[in-house]
Amino acid sequence: MKKIMKKVVSVVFCTAAAIQLLTGCGAKKALVGEETTQTAAGETGKKKSGKAEGETIHLKIATCVATPKNMDKIVEQANAVLKEKLNITIEVVPLAFDGSKYNLLLTTGNDVDLIYTATWAKFQTNALDGAYLPLKEMIQKEVPELWDSIPEEDWKKCEINGEIYNIPSTSDDLIEIGFTYREDLRKKYNLPEITDIASMEAYFAGIKEYEPTMVPCSDRGGRVNEMFQLLNGWYAMSNNLAYDLKGDQGVVVYSKTDSFKKGVETAREWVENGWIDSDIISANVDSAGQFLSGKYASTISYATGEAFNLIYSPALTSNPDWEIKMVNFGAMGQRVLKKHPMHTAFGLPKASPHPVEALKFMLELRTNQELYQLLDCGILGEDYEVTDNGNYKSLNSAEHPAFTKEGMGLTGFYYSVPELSLKPEHYEFITSVYDTMRPYVVDNTIMGFPADDDSVKAEVTAVNQLISQYLNPLINGMVDDTDGGITDLNERMDQAGIEKIHETISSQAKAYTKAIKGE
Predict the structure, then answer these.
(1) Residues 24 and 121 sit within 8 Å (Cβ to Cβ)
(2) What does the pLDDT read at residue 20?
(3) Which of 19, 65, 70, 212, by CA, is between 20 and 30 Å from 455?
């Protein structure tokens, strides 16, 4: 086993969690329930929002996408709307998920007025570090209509120490990953309908027998482990911790649970059976690319909306004879999380030059359908068209490269206002999956929890080294002796101080959930 461990020391576990390497921006403020003092938001806004009468204010907005097609023309048309309405123009700065650029903008300002925020990009930690302007008083005093446009519950869930640091996204998305597969192949070989792990494994065995040149399933990085978290009601946290959403255990060390053990055993069994790849190092194609290549018969790598955008919609053109279906693991486990209003949103860097105008822009984005759809869909007749049933249809193609939906990073997944958004063509793929998930939606308060691990930094560093060196190979099915590997991992975790981290974060989580729920 040690030989195998040495081979995979350099494995990079490629998930959104990697973005959590973003660093902080100063001294952290008190946690929930502790005293804290800071400059009044209203005063901050006053100092920075002065302008000459009639002067057009230019806002710089940093987003987390790559530069989309037709961006300049779309922004030009948006500016015509904004100048007439607010005497404001905008400039979009796409950061393409570059963490170093993000940190630089937070610490230096660089005249950025608005910047994307996300729980997976350490928003809570950065907020505690003073990276963003406090907004509660400023919004209520300067732009009260913005406050009124968002449900009180969403504002409450975004509070950190009673303060607000982002403008919540009012999404109705359900976020768990699921099993996306070729229904046409299932029918062709008369395999069982997919309802649980056993029927998934029957599908894999059938593909292995009848389509020997295909790989039954694509798992690009620990998704078997995530699947078992969803099936058993665990919400994954950083540092090998998880939160119990089905019971009352609160925060636990996840590698010490039966759910972790089952996930490790299953990943190894699937590798040994040839149902998933055993080498996560050399593959340089994502799961969507693998699936669409026709060489893989399924994937467990995507949430419903991602599967629609990355697999289902492209396959309608590239492989119209395929029938693609999805079964969600949250529905299987009867525990589903709705997207948290803090999950992806926008905040104001502490050096934002025009905070009040930035907030007025966010109000206009939330309430002006023409503006929202322009920044969401692009230019009508050039980038998209509207179908007879009122749905969005992209005009993007190899012959006619065009802006694609949500490509600006200002709408949809990045900042959702469902009532203003055009649903994409064939949206029934998503609604059919969501219909199976909605009966099992549970409280998502814990997703906004701002864990503070400053007091256990040494232990966190040691634990994360073990995650890279020992835990990741286990969850990717790369260790022969799973029982021995789990025992070895947990012994090393104890030596590294995992229980000290557990105790610290657990007490904070209890205080946070009580404060948010008003208990």
Answers:
(1) no
(2) 36
(3) 19
